[in-house]
Amino acid sequence: MQSGICGSLGHWCSGSGKAEFLGYNTSVTESIPGRLASVFYTKDLMAGYLTNLQPKIADYFWATELEASDPEEVFARLNRGSGREDWAALGKNRSMSVGDVVEIGGVYHMCRSLGFEEVVDTDLVAGLGRLKEVWKHGL
Predict the structure, then answer these.
(1) Which of the four pLDDT bands, split at 50, 70 and 90, describes residue 127?
(2) Residue 11 belongs to a domain
(3) How many Cα atoms within 13 Å fall on the side-chain side of residue 74?
(4) Is 1 a domain residue?
(5) What whole-number distance in Å separates Cα of residue 99 and Cα of residue 20?
(6) Model confidence over 109-118: pLDDT tens digits?
(7) Is 70 exceeded by the pLDDT of residue 101?
(8) What is the pLDDT of residues 8-42, one digit of tens each?
(9) What range defines the domain where residue 117 resides?
């Protein structure tokens, strides 16, 4: 995938010579293989929209983990109908949506209506980190 700027909503980009679904962000960054992305889904789709007000750790569960270095790549792979689905990571989970969070390299990104926003709430970041450890290691 090449770096580049996509259309106004960023749904599609042809930087690699063919149209590819890239998510809803308007910029694309080069993917670096070998990094694990943890994905946290809101327990209720409506809660995803409410996280714009005040996200709480109780609204989330650890959904899956996959190799990726860009939240937009994760979004495309966890959305049915994108053409880039990662069925092993999707499993029985729903498609990624507003309010869901992707963690890559210790940085947490919340899915918004358009693109992602870095999570700066230290309590939420710490809570999601603990949640990841519990789900992965049963601590």
Answers:
(1) very high
(2) no
(3) 30
(4) no
(5) 24
(6) 999 888 999 9
(7) yes
(8) 333 333 333 334 444 443 333 444 455 889 998 88
(9) 32-137
- Residue 14 makes CB contacts below 8 A (sequence gap 6+) with 20
CA angle, 12 then 17 then 21, to 5°: 20
Q: Domain tally for the chain?
A: 1
One-letter amino acid identity for 92?
K
Ranges 5-14, 54-63, 113-122, most confident:
113-122
pLDDT of residue 75: 94
**E strand or H helix that includes residue 130:** helix 122-137
DSSP characters over 48-97: HHHTTT---GGGEEEEEEEE-S-HHHHHHHTSTTSS---HHHHTTPPPP-
Q: Is residue 53 part of a domain?
A: yes
Range 9-34 burial, b when 16+ CB lie within 10 A, else e: ebbebeeeeeebbbbbbbebeeeeee
Nearest 5°: CA angle at 33, between 31 and 90? Answer: 85
Residue 9 lies in a domain: no
